[in-house]
Amino acid sequence: MGSRREILGIGAGMAAAGLMPGFASRAFAAESRRDRKIGYAVVGLGYYATRQIMPNFTGCEHSRLVALVSGTPAKLEQYGTQYGIPKTHRYSYAQFDSLRDNPDIDAVYIVLPNSLHAEYSIRAAQAGKHVLCEKPMATSVAECQAMIAACRKAGKKLMIGYRSRFEPYNRLAIELARGGHVGPTRFITAEHGFPIQPGQWRLDKALSGGGSMMDIGIYSLNAARYLTGEEPLEVSAVESTDRSDPRFATVEDRIGFVLHFPSGIQANCISSYSSAHNGYRVTGTQGWIAMEPATSYTGQAMTIRKDGVIAPRTLPPAARNQFASQLDHLAECVLTGATPIVSGEEGLADMRIIEAIYRSMVERRHIGLTA
Ligand code: NAD
After folding, report:
1. β-pairing verdict for 266-272 and 287-291
2. What is the pLDDT of residues 339-360, one digit of tens each?
């Protein structure tokens, strides 16, 4: 991997200067690989894929949409026409494994219900494609481990769709929190939730793997981890679910959970399917950094209290939004050999904690996470 970087950097320069005879053609091949756009197949043409992901390829520098996979011929026709995807690059699920034979497809973006993430990620890797898989990575630790093993065996990248890591305000919050801008962090509160509409796969445990925690509470968990840069030692969780509400026949509604980190930071987190929340606050010894909304598609707002003064903090508009940056990040990793900042291991880390949260709320005790 490092050698490819050398080819792209020092090697290319030396070859261009005529200092390395016989090296120029390899260097040129590597450069043109870096210049070309990585081709994505999007799998599952539901809300998130069609409304948020596919429209954002236009803002990408290194990524392009080249293929679609759907079980609905009318969607393949509609979006295929809209995005100029030829019929040869439109696939049903039955044809999924033949993605292997299409050299235009470098990476596969899995935007399916959670219980299908592992199967399609593994089959994508076996078809020789890099994988970008939506959050939650899967529905269990065992599935996450199988996905990581399959991508490793195939020599392919695996990235999880934690888009907030590419959003400028969240990146700034990480820098400020970890850098002690308001003093060493003492507490984090992170709250995510929305009142869920009935009649969707998210409320069917067989497809979702769980309720609010898998879907939206994961943003509170992931934020607590990225704002601290630490892995929790212990978690405790309490559930509140009205089982007479038909929405919650198989999945949980609300969870409050507390994470204890090695430096002593405590994160108090909320996950809800019956109330609206989107924010976090990092409280240090000299003030706080608040984000609300924090992990929305647009409109992040940051306020900082430092030494008694409360003021908004604004950033100039970003050249690429979080969706385009996320797509380009995997492309850049493919082109340079780097590992995604939100790799399979990152998804696995969240899933380990989610399983511990579920255990804690059932067994009504603290669960250690160090083993
Ligand atoms: P959705 O219901 O709108 O889309 C899911 C798609 O999967 C549909 O097109 C559906 O036809 C298809 N599908 C294929 N097989 C299916 C099956 N057996 N059962 C049900 N549907 C099947 O859902 P969505 O909101 O687009 O979510 C898809 C994934 O994206 C989920 O993993 C979700 O967590 C994730 N997501 C992420 C974000 C984010 O901000 N990162 C936002 C929304 C959704």
Report:
1. unpaired
2. 999 999 999 999 999 999 999 9
28-70: pLDDT as tens digits:
344 455 568 999 999 999 999 999 999 999 999 999 999 999 9
| Residues 6 or more apart whose Cβ sits within 8 Å of residue 232 | 224, 225, 259, 260, 261, 267, 353, 369
3-state secondary structure of 152: helix
Phi, psi of 298 (to 5 degrees): -145, 175
Which two three-digit tokens encode residue 144? Answer: 């996450």
Alpha-carbon radius of gyration of the chain: 22
| CA-CA-CA-CA torsion sign (35, 128, 56, 42) | positive
Instruction: Kindly state the tokens that stand for 368.
Output: 């250690």
Which of 164, 107, 157 shows the shortest CA–CA distance to 295? 164
Over residues 280-304, the mean pLDDT reads 98
Distance from chain centroid for Cα 219: 10
CB atoms within 10 A of CB 211: 27
Ligand 1 pocket list (CB less than 6 A): 44-49, 71, 111-114, 116, 134-135, 161, 163, 201, 207, 215
Beta pairing partners, 267 = 188, 259
Structure tokens at 108: 């596969």
| Contact present, 279 and 170 (Cβ < 8 Å) | no
Task: State in Å: Cα 138 to ligand 1 middle.
Answer: 13
d(CA 57, CA 53): 7
Which SS3 state, helix, strand or coil, does residue 151 take?
helix
Cut 0.85: pTM above it: yes
Nearest CA to ligand 1 atom 43: 48
Ligand 1 pocket test: pick from 68, 112, 220, 325 the residue with the most ligand atoms within 8 Å of its Cβ: 112
CA torsion, points 99, 101, 106, 107, in degrees to nearest 10?
A: 20
The helix or strand, by DSSP H or E, that contains position 280, with its residue range, turns out to be: strand 277-284
